[in-house]
Specification:
105 residues; mainly alpha; globular; Helix Hairpins; 0% strand
């Protein structure tokens, strides 16, 4: 059985080229990468604000919105959940400080 994120990603991918009048996801794709990235930023801010000013239910709801928009961005940029899982696996057991310092500046 696949993870909810992988199932949602498959639905998002299936909306590429769909009618933007009947699909919010298709509408995002037609607006392009810049708009999708902007939505990720907005949802990230809303999630952070919910974390400091609201309860767990609001954080969960905003997190779901953030993850959805992030998955749309992945689909737009050619990144799959497997790509992200592989990167997380690569980082497993590595200190966050060491990992950040290893990045090319």
């Amino acid at each position: 059985m696949s993870h909810a994120i992988e199932r949602l990603f498959a639905v998002i991918e299936s909306r590429k080229g769909a009618d933007p009048d009947t699909s919010y996801t298709a509408k995002l794709f037609t607006k392009g990468r810049k708009k999708i990235a902007q939505k990720v930023g907005e949802e990230g801010l809303e999630t952070a604000l919910a974390a400091v000013g609201e309860g767990p239910e609001a954080v969960a709801a905003e997190s779901a919105d953030l993850l959805y928009h992030l998955l749309v961005l992945w689909a737009e940029t050619g990144v799959s959940p497997d790509d992200v899982w592989a990167e997380l696996d690569r980082r497993a057991g590595v200190s966050g400080i060491a990992e950040k310092n290893s990045r090319v500046k």
